[in-house]
Write a structure and sequence with these properties.
By secondary structure, this protein is an alpha+beta fold. Helix content is about 45%, strand content about 15%.
Length: about 475
């Protein structure tokens, strides 16, 4: 019978990934094809103080990833939250609430002092002053929750000023005190409303009013445009124009271009068939093309809804388990384990081979000592997350979890700084260890002197599991400092 073991070698430093394929190697009297992944990350302690962020929605979100999560942003995450903000589904305060209450943040285990410091950096865009820091630390010591302190920062004038600076709607009733001059894009948009909709030059007072309403995000592009398209001035023009001329106005104002022939014909026919001015207006201002134009101009296309606050209870901190050696009692009865994926929960069946995990732990420390590197302590707290990872890689062979988040967002994953993963149709501790040792990336993780702790898990998938096969043995090493 041909046995398969697969090892992909991937070195990940934050968001940089490279792949290496390994040839088949002889082991355990068989040709065995290995696949594994190794990953090294630097999360906590990276210095983002010198980063200059663009004063855009992207810059606002980059700051949250860097300052709150203490890691580089990922493009998928930026695009997700940008869509939420740009479409008006969420305001800046609700996005910030999510970052400060999600599992990834809780797993970082910020101390009270670290928590208050990062609040100042994110919400006030500065280091804490001594008196303010003392005040909030005393609030926490007096029993106030971190959520209470968070809301104190969200309701502040400085947060309103920070949101104004990045061009995002805070979602609070607090009025910013900072001043901001209308950009050229804002000015040109308002000029277009006067010249293309009303057919005249802007009056100074009106120009200033509408430009400031957009700049200070008191009104969205849709709100301002509505003031022009539903004015008595334009209603007279609309009635006297041909349907084609009216369609050309909508294209120029909302899409910034002349209409294509099919679009011109479609909308002209809609007007002739009795579509109201409001229906035509909604068709253009709700288009994705107009939203993209607004994003390019740095204008809010629609005001965020007054959506409910993102409320998630603060978790109870886990009590650290003994960190001596792993358990060696193997229960081979097949059990069901639920894992969360982007498309819902799925069930993985199998058992944990704790004896093999222990054997890998011994091999690893013997190897480190033979190379002049201090042995690692077994991390009985971190292994909770490592067990989760061993089941997750049955479903998704990646350092990103099935739910789309990085591996160190599992329970107690804040301790994890590196990861090796492997899978095989059948294996022993020596088989897994030898292939990790023979791979430069895996080997580097195992001999890294900066690591102080490790947790290891081996999951054996049930042969009837629809997500397994031809691989049934899944091994994970997580390294901590």
């Amino acid at each position: 019978m041909k046995l398969y073991r697969k090892f992909l070698s991937v070195v990940l430093s934050l968001s940089v990934i490279s792949s290496i394929a390994f040839p088949a190697v002889a082991a355990e009297k068989n040709f065995i094809n290995y696949e594994a992944d190794d990953v090294l990350i630097e999360v906590m302690g990276k210095d983002y103080s010198s980063v200059v962020y663009p004063t855009t929605i992207d810059g606002f979100l980059m700051r949250l990833y860097n300052l709150v999560m203490q890691r580089d942003y990922d493009t998928q995450g930026i695009n997700y939250w940008k869509a939420k903000l740009s479409s008006g589904q969420m305001n800046a305060s609700n996005v910030a609430r999510y970052f400060f209450t999600c599992d990834e943040f809780y797993n970082l285990n910020y101390s009270d002092e670290e928590y208050v410091t990062v609040l100042y950096k994110v919400f006030f865009n500065r280091a804490p002053d001594a008196s303010g820091k003392t005040y909030w630390l005393n609030q926490l010591k007096a029993g106030k929750s971190k959520r209470y302190v968070l809301e104190g920062f969200i309701s502040s004038t400085e947060w309103a000023n920070t949101c104004l600076n990045y061009g995002v709607v805070s979602g609070t009733t607090t009025v910013p005190t900072a001043s901001k001059a209308p950009s050229t894009s804002v000015t040109n948009f308002v000029k277009s409303l006067y010249t293309d909709v009303l057919g005249r030059s802007a009056d100074v007072g009106g120009m200033s009013y509408w430009a400031n309403e957009l700049t200070y995000m008191r009104k969205s592009a849709q709100d301002v445009a509505k003031g022009f398209f539903f004015s008595s001035e334009f209603e007279r023009i609309y009635k006297n124009n041909s349907p084609e001329d009216n369609v050309k106005i909508f294209y120029k104002v909302f899409l910034g271009r002349t209409p294509d022939s099919s679009g011109l014909t479609y909308w002209a026919n809609q007007i002739r068939s009795g579509k109201s001015l409001l229906e035509v207006y909604n068709g253009f201002c709700n288009s994705t093309e107009f939203a993209s134009k607004c994003a390019a101009m740095g204008i809010i296309p629609v005001m965020p809804s007054s959506n409910a606050q993102y409320n998630k209870p603060e978790p109870v901190k886990a009590t650290p388990a003994p960190t001596s050696v792993p358990s060696t009692g193997v229960d081979k009865s097949v059990k069901s384990y639920s894992i969360n994926t982007t498309s819902g929960d799925v069930i993985i069946t199998g058992y944990y081979d704790t004896q093999m995990a222990y054997d890998i732990f011994i091999l690893l420390n013997n190897y480190r000592q033979a190379n002049g590197v201090a042995p690692l302590e077994w991390n009985g707290t971190m292994v909770v997350g490592t067990n989760v990872r061993a089941t997750e890689i049955v479903y998704t062979w990646d350092h990103y979890r099935p739910n789309g988040h990085l591996f160190n967002t599992v329970p107690n994953g804040n301790m994890m700084r590196g990861e090796n993963i492997a899978k095989a149709s059948y294996s022993t501790a020596q088989g897994f260890f030898d292939e990790w040792k023979n791979s430069p990336g895996h080997n580097s993780n195992m001999l890294d002197s900066s690591y102080k702790t490790v947790s290891i898990s081996v999951f054996v998938a049930d042969s009837g599991n629809p997500y397994a096969g031809p691989y049934y043995y899944f091994a994970v090493q997580n390294f901590g400092r």
